[in-house]
């Protein structure tokens, strides 16, 4: 699939009422984005997928030990830095209290190249907002180091424009940057899709895939600010942010059948629900098979034993998450 709009078109091909509008099922149309985002969370719980694996750098400041966790990181598999001679130094995870006893704290800290790390709740380090996690390096960095955090990120949800979106609408409400950021939407100007909303009749806006916030229509520019949402003139249009997802482009049937079973449940289409559920599980199994084959092939070819197609070393169990011990 090209993007989220392509998914909607296929859903509406099976269940036309999902097109919404005054003459169809507007609550169902408005539920498609929540259904999609719920499915992402469901797939996310199944396992850690290679498509969600990311590497995020943290650049240290001399004398500063604590840094915010990378946004959207679900699990941490590895934390490392690279020396000037290209040697890789893997940082080890320990309890922060143990590390403080070894490396000191406050006036007793002796800075140096980081070799270990810990997790600390933000409310314990003076952050009034609380509720988050910071990563703390030991020894306290004595200079600028680029420390890479590798792990799995959350599948980024779709953001949808709010307000009335039927064909009778003359205004498209575009969420502000703050709104988008608060729900995890990246506002870097990529992956924006436009489609006609509600009943796609006369005067509807044709589907469009854009990669910038500008040129919304032939003569309309979207301006995202940090103040109140901006009203943009349009005829019955919707705007979807982060509309491209690796699941949609690589495993589109998983997403399609997963959402269709939710639509069937909403419409009380019991036979349809059973059919879509079976197809969804089948496609999900194919996706798991791809993950297994990919990981196995990488292991076999990374360190091969002469004359055999098997690995020389066995992989240890990977860390499935991060926690704060003793806190």
List keywords for this structure.
327 residues, four-stranded antiparallel β-sheet, alpha+beta, four-stranded mixed β-sheet, 7 helices, 30% helix
Topology:
Blueprint lengths: L3 H11 L11 H21 L6 E7 L6 E3 L4 E10 L5 E3 L1 E2 L2 H8 L12 E6 L11 E6 L7 E8 L5 E2 L10 E4 L2 H6 L9 E5 L11 E3 L19 E4 L3 E5 L4 H5 L1 H15 L3 H33 L25
Parallel strand pairs: 5-6
Antiparallel strand pairs: 1-8, 2-7, 3-4, 3-8, 6-7, 9-14, 10-13, 11-12, 11-14
Helix pairs in contact: 2-6, 6-7
Question: Any overview of this molecule?
Answer:
With 327 residues, the protein is an alpha+beta fold. Among the domains are: 61-144, no CATH class; 159-242, no CATH class. Helix content is 30%, strand content 21%. Helix 2 packs across helix 6. Residues 127-131, 163-171, 186-190, 198-206, 209-233, 303-321 and 323-327 have low confidence and may be disordered.
Question: What's this, in brief?
Answer:
By secondary structure, the protein is of the alpha+beta class. The protein has helices at residues 4-14, 26-46, 96-103, 177-182, 246-250, 252-266, 270-302, and strands at 53-59, 66-68, 73-82, 88-90, 92-93, 116-121, 133-138, 146-153, 159-160, 171-174, 192-196, 208-210, 230-233, 237-241.
Q: Compute the gyration radius: what is it? A: 24 Å
Structural class: alpha+beta
| Gross morphology | elongated
DSSP E strands, number: 14
Average pLDDT, rounded to a whole number, is 73
Cα-to-Cα separation, first versus last residue: 45 Å
Physical arrangement of strands within the biggest beta sheet: 1-8-3-4
List the helices and strands in order: HHEEEEEHEEEEEHEEEEHHH
The major pleated sheet works out as: 4 strands, antiparallel
Low-confidence stretches: 127-131, 163-171, 186-190, 198-206, 209-233, 303-321, 323-327
